[in-house]
Every structure is written in structure tokens, then in C-alpha cells.
Fold:
Amino acid sequence: MRFRPALALFVALLFGWAHGATLAQNAPAEAPNGLDNGLAQQVRQLALSGTSGGTTRTAQPGAPRFEVEVGQLDPRLRLAPCQQIQPYVPDGMRMWGKSRIGLRCVQGPTKWNVYLPITVKVFGTSLVASSGLSSGSVLTAADLTLAEVDLAEDNAAPITNAELAVGRTLTRALKPGQGLHQSHLKARQWFAAGETVTVVAQGEGFSVAGEAQALNPGIEGQPVRLRTESGRIVTGQPVGERRVELSL
Structure:
């Protein structure tokens, strides 16, 4: 029986990982689209170790539950045979939602480096829409319920406290059961430019309060510039009605 080149390389890679065998130097320079079970498991463990919860917190009651879905390499890639493939987390890559794991050949006739798509799901309890909600809706307590959802489906922070959501306006429609995130809510304006605000400067072991004039509107989630009574210009974060926090 004659094997096609791609199938022959797949068999070589599979047994090379399972038994530590050396790939033949004359194997075709074409890699299969899939990964063998050993390498896929290494990728999952590496992704889990890069999450905020890792593999240990998942066993704690009430802690998020992590799942990693391993994608496929680009079928257009033509990779040389490799005796040892090393998975790694690329610099600056967050193991949350849709992400990537690097794969590099560290022992073989030709060194190569590719990126493998993965999806890290983080299941935890959060507020979800109890029914379909349209954009522009003002949320009420009846619109929301708690359920286990994938917290990583949106890059914005999930909302778990109904007090932070009730009375807020939706910026986009929500489907029944869809998790509520900060990005779904219209940002609040806590004060206008020119208003006098209370400024709280906080540091390790101390807190000092004073007054300042806002030089631009205080929009939730956006920094605001202030002129203090001494004339100094500082920047802080609006946190409530005519209230700004400075972190020192």
C-alpha cells in the first residue's frame, strides 16, 4: 500500500511524539493540519497555566471553570519535519477568549515558528438578560438574572452586581441568556466641564481629599483633567457624582 506524502508525515509525527522517535530526514516537508494528542494536551496545559485562575483555582468552590479549545494550523502552511516542537505563550498574549499559542521547531533540519489559534473559555456566574433586550433599553431588575456563562466571550469586564446595572442604558441589543458586560452599558457622565469636584488622593495607608475644577466632562471610564486650588493640573478617574480618584 502506498501512502500519500501528507498521510505519511502525519504517521511519523504521531509516533515521534508518542514514543520519542526521530523523524526520518527524508520525510516530506509538509505538515498535517491537525496535532497529535500529546502536543494538543501540552497546548491546553500551557494555556491554562497562563490564565489568571490557572489549573489550581478551578477546583475551588465558586471559582471560574476553564476550558481550552485547540484550533487548527493554517492548511496552507508547509512545515519541515521536526523532532521536537515546543509550545509557548507569545509575549503580551492574554490567555482569555480567542488567543494564540506559538509552536516552534527546536530540533529539526529546518527551524520554524507558527501560531496556533485557541479559545480559552472561562465559565462563571454573571448577570444575563432574562429575555431579549433592545439597544437603548433602560435596565430593570426584572431584565436580569444570574447564570453561568462564558465570561471571556467579551473583552470587557462582566457585571455580577445588579446594583451596577439597574437604571443603566444598553448600547446594544442582548439575546436571552447573553452575559452582561461593561461594554454593553452606556457610559455615565458624572459631572460637566467647569464643575467643582471632590478629589480623593489615595496611597498605601493614607487618603487625602480636596477640591478641584474639572477641565473636561467626567465620563465613566475616561480620565479627566483637573485644576487644583493651587493651580496644578492633575489627571484622575471619575468614580461618582462630582467625585474623582487619584492613585499615587
Observations:
- The first helix runs from residue 5 to 19.
- The chain has three domains: 5-119, 123-184, 189-247.
- The longest strand covers residues 113-129.
